[in-house]
Structure to design on (143 residues):
């Protein structure tokens, strides 16, 4: 298990939606800013095959809903990919996460992420589309 800390707070779902609706460039710059923040925070974490995360959110107040706060997990996984911790954030490498707790800390809002290695990535070919068996054409017999 490895741990890293992201200073401050990540945008919630309401902020993400507002940015996306106002102008496409606003969400893009938001995503770049917070993904870079995650990358800078997890520089010391080595590469992993696939990961499971436990995330503790230290919030400055109790005004936001937990599900709104937890939308920041998007920036966390994108940052892990950009930092080279995981190759991609698909199901093969992202084996899930748990929002461990939401704790009030007015003086030091932050996000603490625990990374657990989950071994080899999932073999997506095994779970992919099932191949259709070709039906044999019946020979027509003409009398």
């Amino acid at each position: 298990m490895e741990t890293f800390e992201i200073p401050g707070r990540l945008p919630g779902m309401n902020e993400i939606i507002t940015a996306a609706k106002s102008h496409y460039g606003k969400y893009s710059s938001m995503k770049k800013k917070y993904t870079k923040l995650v990358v800078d925070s997890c520089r010391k974490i080595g590469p992993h095959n696939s990961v499971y995360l436990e995330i503790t959110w230290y919030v400055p107040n109790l005004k936001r809903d937990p599900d709104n706060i937890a939308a920041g997990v998007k920036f966390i996984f994108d940052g892990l990919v950009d930092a080279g911790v995981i190759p991609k954030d698909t199901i093969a490498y992202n084996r899930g996460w748990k929002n461990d707790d939401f704790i009030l800390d007015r003086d030091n809002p932050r996000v603490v992420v625990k990374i657990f290695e989950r071994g080899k990535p999932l073999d997506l070919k095994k779970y992919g589309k099932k191949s259709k068996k070709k039906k044999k054409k019946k020979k027509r017999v003409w009398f």
Notes: The beta strands are 2-7, 51-59, 94-104, 110-117. The helical segments are 13-22, 24-41, 66-69, 73-82, 124-127. The CA atoms of residues 12 and 70 lie 7 Å apart.
